[in-house]
Amino acid sequence: MSPRRLSRVAVSATTLVLAGSLAACGSSGPSGGGGGGDAAQVWALQDTTLNPIEQASIDRFNESSKVGDVELQTFGNDPYKQRLRTAINSANAPDVFFNWGGGNLKEYVDAGKIEDLTPMLDENPELRDAFLPSVLAGAEIDGKQYGLPMRGVQPVLLFNNKEVLASAGIDGSPATWDDLLADVAALKAKGITPIALAGSQSWTELMWAEYLLDRVGGPEVFQNIRDGKNGGWAQPEVLQAMTMLKELIDAGAFGEDFASVGYDVGGASTILAEGQAGFHLMGSWEFTNQLGQSPDFVKAGNLGYGPFPAVTGGKGDPSNLVGNVSNFYSITKDSDAKEAAEEYVKTALTDETYVSDLVEAGDVMPITGVRDQLAAGDNADYTTTIYDQVANAQNFQLSWDQDLQADVATKMLTELQNFFLGEQTPEGFVSALAG
Amino acid sequence: MAAQGRERPSGWYLTPALTFFGVFAVLPMVLVVYLSFTDWDGFGFPSPSGAGNWSRLVSDPEVRHSLGLTLVFMVLGWVVQTPIALLIGVWAAGRQRNRAVLSSIFFLPVLLSTAAIALLWHSVLDPNFGLTQQLPVLDRFNFLGDPSIVVYTVAWVLTWQFVPFHTLLYQSAARGIPVSIYEAATIDGAGRYRQFFRITLPLLRYTVITSTVLMLVGSVTTFDTILILTNGGPGTATRIAPLYMYQVGFSGFEFGYASTIAVVLLVLGAGLSLAVTRLTGFRAMTSQQEGL
């Protein structure tokens, strides 16, 4: 072959390859994605325990469904929000999708992407009554219902290592903020990090700010911030709460290394389980997490838990909770398999087998009357505690990072991380966010 | 004319490359410039916002901080990586068997994915359960959590990650230097060091430039290692400009403002690579091996 001929062959081969790759780019995207018009696509977060239960529920639905099938797609936590945001405008949008309710869902509602479920609940009052009202409120926006609870409630609790507390002469969860400060001092004197904190992930630090502001000023303060009322972040209660938090940090409550401790890699939980720390403020999923990672620790009965302490003279009721109210299924307005989507959401979430499967997995579904089931199941003490806390809470505030607009939330988390590192004063934190 | 026609292929031969470049390089660049003048939260269509994003950019202290950090990593990266890569590369160019074996160990990080490298170093340096906590002296440092140390930690991991690649460049370039030049130098009485500084180094000049451009432009775009290793933390201590852009865009969903930061990075990267090639006369592309 002459060099000339060779180069011609090479060029045409290259062209073919390029044309092929260009064509491939044009048809990218998940092959089983929605918009196909066949099965309604249900998007949920990956979870090794819960996904099989959700899949089983969908299988049962599909067996008897007369309005079409439903199909489950799951995604990892971090990429999920990006995926959803970019897909919602496209033909690959899901028909039913997992969300956290609150301000995050509101952005989608405001963009006109979400189906109003109020008519469905009006037609089926027994469906509305099936859920705990404080939890249903998590997906209520401007008086309309845009989602139904599909997984358990996840309030934030103050966990502790009973053995460690006992060694420092502390009996049980602190009832007040002053008790907590005393416990911190006692643990420090023993050379133990008082509180485990996965500070490389700012949402763990956020839990402290959320609870303190609630205890100091009541739930209205944050609601004003979210709704842009009454001066927002500049309300005096914010500064007061952040100053108290600063005292806690300066007292060395979180030790020296928290800034590089993670939660996803099991950092903070392991620190608690191995007795390197006394307390750990975390969502209710911490129990399942400890059960999986350090089963001996939990089975020996050393994992204690209690509500966040009260602040003497504060306006917030000690029964108030923060955390993930629940996860919700919402239906997209442009869904082309809406009948199946609506039927699934209407019938499957209160289905007895689905609820009892979740209860068995340790998830506390916000269904009225599930308490007896919980009391008869495994870890009854823990699950009934959670259920009672949620049922009796005066207010259940959704995590701020889910309830605020995404851009505000991102900025807040950055400022908060600087605050915990001591690079930002309480005043600086307030003025950075009040703008 | 006929002779020339035979040497130069027809302009149509450019089509595949041009199409590819147009669709995957020029088009996104144009789009990102357009987006930088809009507000877009991912829903519906971008709404024009004039120069709003740009005035915000100018007054945003986080942008200044993150660009400064990018610059620190750029300079630190170049100053540390270039000599190491050059020396190992030239050394590895030798044909001795032990060098071949050792070089293949040195090149190992090239084969690892960024995520694996970042996770590996994260678990080595973890202040609670990391390997460094089991060692004397090192256990006194919090490599990932102390804002004054973490910059050097990240620079170290990036060095570990990228030196092997640049070493490969130098190794192949050094192997391309004709042995006859060294033989002549030996006859002229030049020693090892003299040979290195008078022959090897000047002949590797274009490789140094190539590697420099790759490093400089690379440091404008690297962020995956840092995302996994520190996620910009603690606080904002390692939040370089590309990571800030990513967070503004994909956590805050302010695609307009994120595009504005992207344009700055684009200009910075293109400017740097132009400046380096121009200042060094790289574009002339004359042969460095006279008489060969």
Number of helices of chain B: 14
- The chain-level structural class of chain B is mainly alpha
Report the mean per-residue pLDDT of chain B as an integer: 87
N-to-C CA distance of chain A: 72 Å
The CATH architecture of the domain at 76-238 in chain B: Orthogonal Bundle
Computed over alpha carbons, the radius of gyration of chain A is: 24 Å
The outline of chain B comes out as globular
Largest protein-protein interface: A-B, 42 and 39 residues
Our count of domains of chain A comes out at: 2
Question: What would you say about this model in short?
Answer:
The complex is a heterodimer of chains A (435) and B (292). Chain A is α/β, with parallel strands linked by helices.
Layout of helices and strands:
The complex is a heterodimer of chains A (about 425) and B (about 290).
Chain A: H1 3-26, E1 40-45, H2 50-64, E2 70-75, H3 77-87, E3 96-99, H4 102-110, H5 118-123, H6 125-130, H7 133-136, E4 140-141, E5 144-145, E6 148-149, E7 154-161, H8 162-167, H9 177-189, E8 193-196, H10 202-217, H11 219-227, H12 236-250, H13 267-273, E9 277-283, H14 285-293, H15 295-299, E10 303-306, E11 321-324, E12 328-331, H16 338-348, H17 352-360, H18 371-376, H19 380-392, E13 396-398, H20 400-403, H21 406-420, H22 426-434
Parallel strand pairs in A: 1-2, 1-3, 8-9, 11-13
Antiparallel strand pairs in A: 3-12, 4-5, 6-12, 7-9, 7-10, 7-11
Chain B: H1 2-7, H2 15-35, E1 38-39, E2 47-48, H3 52-59, H4 61-92, H5 97-106, H6 108-111, H7 114-125, H8 150-175, H9 179-187, H10 192-203, H11 205-221, H12 224-229, H13 241-250, H14 255-279
Antiparallel strand pairs in B: 1-2
List the main descriptive attributes of the protein structure presented here.
heterodimer; A: alpha/beta; D-Maltodextrin-Binding Protein, domain 2; 2 domains; 6-stranded mixed β-sheet; 5-stranded mixed β-sheet; 22 helices; 51% helix; globular; disordered N terminus; B: 292 residues; two-stranded antiparallel sheet; 14 helices
